[in-house]
Amino acid sequence: MPRLPPVPRPAAAASTSTPDIVAELGRIISTRRWNKGAAYKRLAPSVTAAHVADLFRAPPAPLHPATALAYFEWVGRRPGFRHTTASHAALLQLLARRRAPANYDKLVVSMISCSDTAEDMREVVDAIQAIRRTGGARLALSPKCYNLALRSLSRFDMTEHMGKVYSQLVQDGLLPDTVTYNTMIMAYCKEGSLAIAQRYFQLLRESGMELDTFTCNALVLGYCRTGDLRKACWLLLMMPLLGCRRNEYSYTIVIQGLCEARRVWESLVLLSMMQQDACSPNLRTYTLLIKGLCKEDRIDDARVLLDDLPQRGVFPSVRTYNTMIDGYCKSGRTKDALGIKSLMEGNGCDPDDWTYNSLIHGLCDGKTDEAEELLNSAIARGFTPTVVTFTNIINGYCKAERIDDALRVKNIMMSSKCKLDLQAYGVLINVLVKKDRIKEAKETLNEIFANGLAPNVVIYTSIIDGYCKLGKVGAALEVFKLMEREGCRPNVWTYSSLIYGLIRDQKLHKAMALITKMQEDGITPGVITYTTLIQGQCNRHDFDNAFRLFEMMEQNGLTPDEQAYNVLTDALCKSRRAEEAYSFLVRKGVVLTEVTYTSLIDGFSKAGNTDFAATLIEKMINEGCKPDSYTYSVLLHALCKQKKLHQALPILDQMTLRGIKCNIVSYTILIDEMIREGKHDHAKRLFSEMTSSGQMPSATTYTVFINSYCKIGQIEEAEHLIGEMERGGVSPDVVTYNVFIDGCGHMGYMDRAFSTLKRMIDASCEPNYWTYCLLLKHFLKTSLGNAHYVDASGLWNWIELDTVWRLLDRMVKYGVNPTVETYGSIITGFCKATRLEEACALLDHMFGKGISPNEEIYTMLIKCCCDTKHFKKALSFVSNMIDCRFQPHIESYQYLITGLCDEGDYDKAKSLFCELLGMDYNHNEVVWKILNDGLLKAGHVDICSQLLSAMENRQCHINTQTYAMVTNSMHEASGSVVSELRGEAA
Q1: Which one-letter DSSP state was computed for residue 211?
Q2: pTM for this model (two decimals)
Q3: Which of 82, 123, 304, 658 holds its CA 20 to 30 A away from the CA of 257?
Q4: Alpha carbon of 560 to those of 532, 556, 669: distances in Å?
C-alpha cells in the first residue's frame, strides 16, 4: 500500500518566513524605542511566529538576549498573535547559548502550552535537552516543569520521550515526586508495558513515598490492558490494605476489563460491591455494563439496566443510547433499536451520526427500504452521510439482489460529492457479475480507474470468480491479465477461481499450467486448489494423474481434507472401481462420512454388489453416521437396474421407519422401473403419493413418463405432458427434448422432430451430440426405408455425407441455423469412427459458412489424424489451433509425439516436444502424460531419456517425486527390453 505523504510541520520544518522581513525586523529591534517608530508599525501586521523564530536563529545572532526576550514577550501580547513551539525553541536556544538569565521554567511551560501535536512535544524535549547541554546545572528546570512535560508527553502516548525527560530530571539532581512516578506508571500501563511500569512502581516504593489511589488505579489499568484480570481484581481488593481508597474510577477500570472479557456477571458483582463501598457508579460505568450485557446477548437485561438509570440518579447520554441501539441491531431487533431512538429523542437527547449509521447498518439486513427512509429523514435533520452510510445501503440492496436500487443509491452518493470507496465498488461488481450483468460490471471497473482508485486483489478476484462461475473463462483470463498489468498481485483465491473455471470449461491443461505459475509467483497451492485439479483429472477418468496430484499434495506438507477424499472416492465409484476406492480409504485410515459412505454404496451398487452396499448402510448406521434420502436413492437405483423392484420397494418402508423422507430422486427411480416393467398403474399411484407428500416432479420425472408414451407411439400425450411441465414451471432439459425427438422419429414424424429442435433452441436448451445422432439416425432410416433398423451406436460407421447435408438443409428450412456446436457434434461422430475424410469435409463446410471451429473440434480432429496415422495433417491442425489462440490439449501432444516415434520420426518428435516446453504447460503433467504414460508405455525408452534431458537443460520445474517416477519407469522399461532381446537371442 502506498504511503501517504507526511503532514508538513507548522513552522518546525524549513523556514516559511520572508528573508527581507526578518532582516528589516532585526534592524528595527536593534534601535532604541523601536516599538514607537513608524517603521515597526508598518511592518508589525506582517510579522508571524515563523519570522520571530528566524530572527532569533539568524547568524551570528545579532540580538542581545535581553532584547530578544523582551521582544518575545512584547509581540506575544499583540492581539491575534500566537507563538509556536518553533519560536519558543529559537528563543531558548539563543538564551541558553549565551547562558543568559531568564525564567526558563516559565518559557518551557509556555512552550508546552502551545504544543498541539506529538511533533510539537518532540521539539519541547529537544529544547529541554538543549538547555541542559548548553547551560548546565545552572539553568536546570524545576520538578514542576518536568512533571508538566511528562504529563503532556503522556497525552500523546510518547513513552520513549518520557523516559528521556525522566533521565534528564534525575541527571539534574532533582528528586522525582509522587506526581512524576504516577505519570510514568500510568503512561506505561496505558501502553500495556507493565514490566516498565512496575519498575517505576518499585522506585516509588524505595523512595519512601506513600502510594495513592492514582498509583493503584494506574496499575489496575495496566493489568487489565495486558489481560491479567486476576491480578487487577486482587489489587482492587487490596487497595484499602495498601492505604489507598478505592474510587469509582478504580471499579470502572476493572468492570471495563471484565466486560471486554465477556465476564459480565463478575462486573455486576463489582457494581454491588462498589455501592457498598460508598462509590457512586457514574454514567461510564453503566454504559460499559450495558455494552457488556449486549455483547453476551443479554439484551433484555441491558434494557432493564438502561431503564433503571434515572432512578439511580444517572441520565443516559448519546453514547449510552448508542450502545443499546448497537446491541439491538446486532441481534437483528431493529424495531427495538428504533424504539431506543424515539426514547432518546423524547428525553431531549439528539441522535448523532453514530446513531444513524448504526441504525442504517442494522436495517440494511433485510429492511433496506426503511434504511433509506431513515437516511432521508436524517439528512433533513442535518445528518451528513458518509461513504460508510451509503455503502451499507448499497450493500443491503445488493444482498436483496435489487441491483437497480443499489445503482440508484450509488448515483445519489456521487451527486452528493461523496465518492465511493473500493469496498462499495467491490460489493456492486460482485452482485453485477453474479446476476450476469457483465457489461455493467466492466463499466464499474472502468469507473474505479476513472476515479483514480486502484482496484485491489479482492475486486479483481470477485470479477474473475464471477466470470468463472458463469462459464465465461475467457473474460476471466482477460481480467487476470489486466490485473497483472496494473501490478496487482493475484492470491490463492484468484488462482483457485481460475482453476475451477478452466476445469469447468474442460481446459484441464490450462488449469494444470496455473499451478506452475502460482509457484513462480511465490504462492503455495492449498488443499482446495489441489482438490479442484484432482476433480479435473477424475472428470477425464485419468486416475493415475489424480493419485499423483494427491501424493504431491501430501509431499508438500498439506493434509487432504474430507472433500479431497470424497472427490476421488466418488469418481472411482462412478467408474466402477468401488473396491479400489474402498481399499484406498482403508489404507489411508480415513474416517468415513455420510458423503463417503453414499459414494461407496453407489459404487458397489452399480457394480452389482448390492449385498455389500446394504451392509455398508448398516455399518454406516452403527457408526452413528445417519444415511439420508440420497444414500437410499443410490441403492434403489442399483436394485432397479438389476430388475429387483420387489427388493427396492421395501426399502421405502425402512426409510419411513428411520424417519427419512423419500426424495424426488428415489421416487423417479422407482416410477421409471415400474414403467419399464409395464406397471403403469403402480407408477401413477406412486406419482400421486409423491406429489401429495409435497415433492414437486422434476424434469427427469416428467421425462420418464414422456419416454413411456413415446415408446408406445402416443406422441400427442407425450407432447401434452411437455406442455404441462412447462406450465408447472419445470423446464424440459436436453434429455426430455431428445426423448421426444427420438419418439417423433420412430413414428416418422420428422417435421415434428425438427419443430421440437427449434422449440428446444428457442428455450435456450443447447442440443447436444445425442440430439444430432438421433436426427441423423432417423434421416438414415428414412432413406433406407422404414423397414430397416438403425442403431445409433453404429451410425457413424456407414452414414454418408449426403444425409448430413440434407439434415443441415432441413434445419435451415425450420429456422435453425447450424452452429459450431452442430458441426462439432457431427465431426465428433465421424472422428470416433476414424472417418477423417468426412470430418475434414465438414470442417471445410464450416469455413464456407463463415463459422470458425472451436477448441474441441480441433482436438477431436488431431486425435483422429493420429489414430489414422496422418501425422502431418495433425501437425497442421496444431498450428491452426495456436494461430487461433487455442492451446492444444496436452493429450494431443501425447498422441502426436508417441505416434511420430512409432513411425520412427524421432527428430520431428523431439522438435515438437521442445516447442511445447516453451508454452504454458505444467511440467509435471508433461512428464506424466507424454514421457511416462505415452513414450515409455509405447517402449520408446531412448527418446524418453533424451526428452527428459531436454527438460533438465531448460531448467523445467519438475517435482522430485515426478522425476523419480519417470526415471524408475525408464529403468524398468530398459530392463524389459533387455530381457526381450535375450529371449529372442535364445
Answers
A1: P
A2: 0.63
A3: 304
A4: 12, 11, 34
| Cα–Cα distance, 907 to 662 (Å, whole number) | 63
Q: In Å, how far are 549, 568, 589 from 535, measured between CA atoms?
A: 10, 7, 21
Asked if the model's pLDDT at residue 136 lies above 60, the reply is: no
Is residue 218 within 8 A of residue 184, CB to CB? The reply is: no
Report residue 362 as a C-alpha cell: 442494522
CA distance 769 to 828: 8
| pLDDT number for residue 844 | 94
What lies within 8 Å, CB to CB, of 838 at 6+ separation is: 801, 804, 830
Instruction: Label residue 875 exposed, middle or buried (CB < 10 Å: 0-12, 13-18, 19+).
Output: middle
Q: d(Cα 168, Cα 131) in Å, to the nearest integer? A: 11
CA distance 243 to 254: 19
| CA distances from residue 697 to 193, 664, 725, 763 in whole angstroms, order as listed | 68, 7, 9, 20
Bond preceding residue 60 cis, omega within 30 of 0: yes
Measured on CA atoms in the order 94, 100, 104, 107, is the torsion positive or negative?
negative
- Contacts of 938 by beta carbon, 8 Å cutoff, 6+ apart: 898, 901, 902
Angstrom distance (rounded) from CA 629 to CA 649: 14
Tell me the C-alpha distance between 900 and 869, whole Å: 9
Q: Please give the average per-residue pLDDT across 908-937, as a whole number.
A: 90
Handedness of CA 888, 890, 894, 900 (dihedral sign): positive
CB-CB contact of 729 with 697 (8 Å): no
Q: What is the mean pLDDT of residues 553-580?
A: 90
Q: Is the pLDDT of residue 110 over 60?
A: yes
Number of C-beta neighbours around residue 489 at 10 A: 12
The Cα–Cα gap between 6 and 142 comes to 35
CB atoms within 10 A of CB 187: 24
DSSP state letter for 502: H
What pLDDT does 873 receive?
95
Question: Mean pLDDT over all residues of the chain?
Answer: 85
950-970 confidence digits (pLDDT tens)? 998 888 888 888 888 888 888
Q: The C-alpha cell of 364 is what? A: 440494511
**What is the spatial distance between Cα 600 and Cα 602, in angstroms, rounded to a whole number?**
5
Helices (H), 436-590: 438-450, 457-469, 473-485, 492-504, 508-520, 527-539, 543-555, 562-574, 578-588
Q: Are 87 and 11 in contact (CB under 8 A)?
A: yes
Cell of 764: 435456450
Whose CA is closest to 125, among 105, 150, 142, 103? 150
- Provide the 3-class DSSP secondary structure of residue 806: helix
- At residue 613, the 3 state secondary structure works out as helix
**Cα distances (Å, whole numbers) of residue 263 to 230, 254, 260, 289, 308:** 12, 11, 8, 10, 21
